[in-house]
Amino acid sequence: MPRAGLTAERVVAAAAGLADEIGFEKVTVSALARHFGVKDASLYSHVRSLQDLRTRVALLAGGEMIDRIAAAVAGRSGKDALAAFAAAYRGYALEHPGRYAAAQIRVDQSLVADAPALRRTAEITYGMLHAYGLAEPDLTDAVRLLRSTFHGYCALEATGAFGAARDVQASWDRAIDALHVLLLNWPREKREDPWPTAPDPMTGPVS
Fold it and tell me: What percent of the residues of the chain are helix, what percent strand, and what percent coil, each to the nearest 5?
């Protein structure tokens, strides 16, 4: 029988919080059971396995992240939208390292294909890039460039890898300026369907 007071939502939320505290890779069913003061078996009434738990945390984090990005880019376009998107992405990654790590894992496509967060991510990301006049296959290429740039910068910043005297925020701002110029002058290929059937997400689980 499920333990009174525990729900799948509470378990996943606690796992997400624990991920930020100790690191996503250290989140286990046993660690979460200790957090609630219960035996491991009590949690299996709410999650099927460790993989199921991690997938749920990944989907939760992806949804939180795109909600933040959506609020930041609302009513903006062009460089303003790009800068707001990037700032929201970076802010979430640095404030919630465990959740952010969860949002980067590969999960079964069948589990995320209909996820609202993934659909919303595609709409917001590709909508922003359409303002630069991009269509497929350039859209997917641009998404991959932006994501790898943002992720790489955040990963290095989080570990204190930037040791030069130059202000980290100033370098970030210049990087966004450079990406804006690049998007304006993108070397376009032959256009395909303007909306991809299986877009690479900027946030959320990698499909």
Answer: 65, 0, 35
**Which positions ≥6 away from 174 have C-beta within 8 Å?**
none
3-state secondary structure of 193: coil
How many residues in total does the chain contain? 207
Of the pLDDT bands very low, low, confident and very high (cuts 50, 70, 90), residue 187 is very high
| 66: exposed, middle or buried (Cβ count in 10 Å: 0-12, 13-18, 19+) | buried
Render the burial of 130-160: b for 16+ CB within 10 Å, e for the rest: eebebbbebbbbbbeebbebbbebbeebeee
Locate tokens 């370098």: which residue? 171
Instruction: State pLDDT tens for residues 51-88.
Output: 999 999 999 999 999 999 999 999 999 999 999 999 99
Query: DSSP assignment of 131-168, as one string?
Result: TTT--TTHHHHHHHHHHHHHHHHHHHHHTT---SSS-H
Angstrom CA distances, 192 to 135, 147, 188, stand at: 7, 22, 11
pLDDT of 90-145, one tens digit each? 999 999 999 999 999 987 766 666 677 778 888 999 999 999 999 999 999 999 99
Cα angle value 154/139/80 (rounded, 5°):
55
Spatial CB neighbours of 165, under 8 Å, sequence gap ≥ 6 = none
